[in-house]
Every structure is written in C-alpha cells, then in structure tokens.
UniProtKB/TrEMBL annotation:
Residues 275-475 form the Lipid-binding serum glycoprotein C-terminal domain. This is Lipid-binding serum glycoprotein C-terminal domain-containing protein. SUPFAM superfamilies: Bactericidal permeability-increasing protein, BPI. InterPro entries: Bactericidal_perm-incr_a/b_dom, BPI/LBP, BPI/LBP_pln, Lipid-bd_serum_glycop_C, Lipid-bd_serum_glycop_N.
C-alpha cells in the first residue's frame, strides 16, 4: 500500500470510533488544545531525534554478481545515521488516540564497505575497502498512539508505527567504478529497509519509554506536610474538537491516610475549557477542589486561633471593656483576656462568573485569664464573608482573601447581654489583623496545578465561570539539564469584586 494512503487509513481508522465519554467523579480537567499538542509533538520529535542519533544499523553482508568477475563478497559495516532532519510534522487526534506523522524526513548515514573476490585470472584474493556516505530522502514516519487510563494512571500504547524510505543515494569514496554501480544496485533497497526497521524499532522503544514515564507519574502531588492533591485519572482521555481532555480527581486528600472527607459533587460537567482561547492548556478546577481543601484543613484542626497579642494590646484587658461590657469588668476587674476563635464548620467556597468568595462560620470565645485559669465568659458566633482574588504563580494556583463583611450573634454569655454593635470594631480589628493575614499566608503559596514536571505555565489567565475556574495558559518546557530561567512571570489576577456571596 502506498505510504500516504497508509497514514490516511490510520487517521480514518482512529477517527471513526464514537465518543465513549461518561461523566465521572472528576473535579479537575486538563485540556490540551491543538496548539498544546503541536508544542508537545515538536518536543517529542526533537527528543526522538536527539535520542536516535547516532543510530547504528546492523551490518549487511552480501554476495554481489558482477559481470566478468562473478560473485564478490561485500560487507557493509558501521552504518551510522548521524543526522536526521524532519521537514514537516503534524499531530492529529482520533477518538482512540493520537497520530503523529513526520514527512519529508532526510537522514545522512556513513558506512564502511569492504569487498573481496578471487577469480581464475588472479590466484590470490583481491580485496578493497573504503567509506561511503548515504543520503536518505523523503522518508515518511507515522505513529499511531493509543491513550487510556489504567488503574488511575495513564497508559500510552503503540497501535501502529511505520517508516517508509522514498529514495536513497550512495556515494563511495574510493573503490573501482565497476564496483560502484553493483554496490549501489545491490544495497540500496537493503539499506533502505534496514533504516526503516531500525527507526521503527527505535520509535517503538521510545513510545514504551514514554509509556513508562506516564505510568510512573505520581497519583498524588504533595501540597504540604498535611495535604496532597489526588491526581488520579478518573476516565480515559477525551479526544474531541482537536483537543485532549484529561479528567482527574483533583481533590485534596490527607497525606498518607485514606481519610474520607465529605463527598463532593461536580455541579456542572465542564463543557468547554477556555473556549475561543488559543492557549495551549486549559485547566478547569471545580469549586469542590477548594472546598475539599477547606474540609481537610478544618478536620486537621488547623482552624483555631488563640489571640493573645493584637496591635492594640490594651484591648485584651477587661479594663478597656469597662464601658462596653460593665458586667465583665465588675466580675473580673483588670484581668488580661484572650480571644479563642475557632471555625465551627469548614469554610465554604463559592465561585461564579463575577467573584470568588468564601463564607466562614466561626465561634469567638472571650476568655478571662485569672491566675493560671482560663475562664470562658461569652461566645459570639460570627459569619464572615470574604472575597478572593486568584493568581497563578509558577505552576501554583494561589490567591488572597479580604474581608467583605461579617455578622455577629451571641451564642452564650456568663456576663449578661452584650451590646454586639459596640464590639463590632474590636471584632473587625481581630478579623483584619489575625484572621485575614493567617488565611492569606496560606493562600499565597496556593496549591500545585497538575502539570508534568519540566513544564511551566506561561502567560496564564484565570477565567471564572459558574462553580469553576479555568486557568488558560501556554507552557514552556525546561529540561532538568537546562538552567532554570530566573524570569518569573506573574500573570494578572482576577480583579477584586465587591459582590458578596
Ligand atoms: C564508525 O563510524 C563512526 C561515525 O562515522 C566513526 O567515527 C568510526 O570511526 C567508525 N568506526 C570504524 C571501526 O570504522
Ligand atoms: C545530509 O543530506 C542532505 C541531503 O539529503 C544534504 O543536503 C546535507 O548537506 C547532508 N548533511 C551532511 C552533514 O552531510
Ligand atoms: C483518588 O481519587 C480516586 C478517583 O476518584 C479514588 O478512587 C481514590 O480513592 C482517591 N484517593 C484518595 C487517597 O483519596
Ligand atoms: C477554644 O474554644 C473551643 C470552643 O469554641 C474549645 O473547644 C477549645 O477548647 C478552646 N480552646 C482553648 C485553648 O481554650
């Protein structure tokens, strides 16, 4: 079959299969657009060339019949491809996999030749040897790759691999001219076939290396010593609209334990990630991811603060509260106090087109410190509303919150009724100086987006939509051997929005 047709067939074959995508428990989707595929394809082509060269081709021994001389034994050895040049290549998607075709490929080989013969004319054996250069022109290389999820990992398989040499030219250095033509005729096809099979073999080894690499990708990305992101693949990659979408679990899990957080549901199946955007990569993160983080840290009891130092330290003495809560001063005159703030439920994150926000329910217990004793005297329930800004830093998604407003209600009191409106400024100060900086300290670093090591996001943009955010970005690739670029891009963050939850 003509090789062009052969690749066409590969394409059609992989395009014919119907979509088999079913929505699953995935909270983060990673879409690689055609631009992203081209980027990865170029990377792979360059990596493949670098790994192929220099490529040794097995020696060829042959008996060649030459007019008047009869049979002579020729050995071609040390056949080495030392240059390989891909004129053009493309990547196309079918339903079951990826097709990569490189055409107009040329390669240059060097080789040693040796011949020997004996005839009745000359009783001794006659031999000669030299070197030759070989040019392979118009080589077509095609790969058809299958991509599947396998036990939460990603499996790459080689469905077809073809390499076809169009034309070959051989130039001898030295040697007799009669030998030249015989040599070219006898070895052309065999060298071509050998180049084809050696490159195909090398490519299939390359694919299996890539497969091992993909299978060795971690199923969890550590966030800190307490939390990790579950980056298990939850379904086969979806190949559609010239893009590949990888569905991954994406939720926060407690490190090294199989703790069950409350279950999350994805509100809407992400339809199109970064529509109309020409960026290479789109990562959509459901608000459930943020809520799983909130639930995890809440369960880890990280969300409790004893406030015993504030900028206006006199506020933490009953004397200062004398006129605000007279009973407090009467009962515990001139005693130091602290405030015990604890969250009463995990913060709830809401994402919409206009804003990113969080609702936090907290209990604020007023403690009086008497001798060695901590005496809780009253408890105020707080509902704090914050709005957030998200930012991509390196490969992390981070952000910051600020206080929008809060409401208070008295939960219990041993010191009579409190005039909550009088407490408002003090509580606001505490939230602003303790709570918000604490939250921002943690949010600033953010958490890692599921990006394969070596790739870095460039010119990322964040787009909020109903219940999810999408990071639309280009990527760059840095080999571990390459120097790390010092340039750090800080993409624009989503603007502050004053709307509340
Ligand atoms: C084999 O080929 C390589 C590359 O052309 C060359 O450097 C090397 O000397 C050759 N070896 C022999 C034994 O001729
Ligand atoms: C390799 O072969 C191409 C033609 O196929 C030729 O143009 C090029 O100069 C050769 N390169 C070397 C280094 O010999
Ligand atoms: C990670 O996600 C997968 C798929 O949703 C799930 O089966 C697995 O239990 C999760 N792992 C942990 C440690 O939560
Ligand atoms: C802080 O208050 C919570 C109840 O809101 C309580 O369970 C916890 O023990 C208190 N912590 C301290 C150190 O007083």
């Amino acid at each position: 079959m003509d090789v062009g047709w052969c690749f066409f067939f590969l394409l059609v074959q992989s395009l014919l299969f119907l979509p088999s995508h079913t929505q699953s428990d995935s909270f983060t989707s990673v879409l690689v657009s055609q631009n992203g595929l081209d980027f990865v394809k170029n990377l792979l082509v360059n990596k493949a060339i670098a790994s192929i060269i220099p490529l040794q081709i097995p020696r060829i021994e042959k008996s060649v019949r030459i007019p008047f001389l009869g049979g002579i034994d020729v050995v071609v050895s040390n056949l080495t491809i030392y240059e390989l040049d891909v004129a053009s290549s493309y990547v196309k998607l079918g339903e079951t996999g990826v097709v990569i075709v490189a055409s107009g490929t040329t390669c240059n080989l060097s080789m040693n030749w040796h011949y020997s013969y004996s005839t009745w004319l000359a009783p001794i054996e006659i031999s000669d040897q030299g070197i030759a250069s070989v040019q392979v022109e118009g080589m077509e290389i095609g790969l058809s790759l299958g991509l599947q999820s396998d036990e939460g990992g990603l499996k790459l398989s080689l469905s077809e691999c073809g390499c076809h040499v169009n034309d070959i030219s051989i130039e001898l250095e030295g040697g007799a001219s009669w030998f030249y033509q015989g040599m070219v005729n006898a070895f052309k096809d065999q060298i071509g076939a050998s180049v084809e099979s050696t490159i195909a073999k090398k490519l299939s080894e390359g694919v299996s290396d890539l497969d091992s690499f993909l299978q060795s990708l971690p199923k969890e990305i550590p966030v800190d010593d307490k939390a990790a992101l579950n980056v298990t693949f939850t379904s086969d990659p979806i190949l559609k609209d010239s893009s590949v979408t990888f569905e991954i679990d994406g939720l926060f899990t407690k490190r090294e334990t199989n703790q069950d957080l409350k279950s999350f549901f994805r509100n809407s199946a992400s339809s199109a990630i970064c529509p109309g955007n020409s960026k290479m990569l789109g990562i959509s993160v459901d608000e459930a991811v943020f809520n799983s983080a909130a639930a995890l840290y809440y369960n880890a009891e990280f969300m409790q603060w004893i406030v015993d130092k504030i900028p206006e330290q006199t506020l933490l003495n009953t004397a200062r509260w004398r006129f605000i809560i007279p009973q407090l001063y009467k009962k515990y005159p001139n005693q130091d106090m602290n405030l015990n703030i604890s969250l009463s439920s995990p913060p709830l994150v809401k994402i919409s087109e206009e804003y990113v926000g969080a609702n936090v329910d907290a209990d604020l217990v007023i403690d009086v410190l008497q001798a060695d004793q901590v005496i809780p005297v009253a408890c105020i329930s707080l509902v704090i509303r914050g709005s957030g800004a998200l930012r991509v830093m390196g490969n992390n998604l981070g952000g910051s919150v600020r206080l929008e407003d809060f409401s208070m209600s008295l939960k219990w009191s041993n010191i009579g009724n409190l005039h909550l409106h009088l407490l408002q400024p003090i509580v606001r100060t505490v939230i602003q100086t303790v709570f918000v900086p604490y939250a921002n300290d943690h949010l600033e670093k953010g958490f890692p987006l599921p990006i394969i090591r070596g790739f870095t996001l460039e010119n990322a943009e964040i787009i909020c939509s109903n219940s999810e955010i999408a990071v639309c970005s280009d990527v760059a690739y840095l080999d571990s051997s390459q120097q790390l670029r010092s340039r750090l891009t800080l993409p624009r963050s989503t603007p502050w929005k004053s709307k509340l939850l």
